[in-house]
Amino acid sequence: MTQETQRTTLPIVEMAKENDEFRQVIWTGKQAQLVMMAIPEGGEIGGEVHEGHDQLLYFVEGQGEATIGEVKADVQAGDVSIVPSGTFHNFRNTGSSMLKLFTTYSPPEHEPGTEHVTKSEADAE
Q: What's the pTM?
C-alpha cells in the first residue's frame, strides 16, 4: 500500500503482520510518519540516534530485545517502545520467527514512499 491511496483509516496491525520488508513507509505527513518493519530471526534494526525525532514502536508479532539508552527490555506483541529524540536505541529479534512492528516518527524520518526489502539495502542507501 502506498501513500497515494490517501486512506485515513488502515488495518495497520494486519498490514504489519503481512509485511516481510525491512522498512516500508506507509504514510508521511508534515509532523508525523507511519512505517512498517520486519526484522528477520537473529537480525536487528541497528544502533542509532535520531536527533529531533521522537519514535514510538508498536510490536505486533515475534519476540525481541529493546535497548533504549542504558535500558534493555524484552519486547513482544502488544508492547510499545518509546524512544525520545537524541536517545541511542536498537531492537534485536531474539525469537524464532520475524519480529514485526509498525513505528511512528515525529517529525518524519524517511523520504515518503521509502521501501527497503532488507537491512543491507537500507544500510546501502
A: 0.84
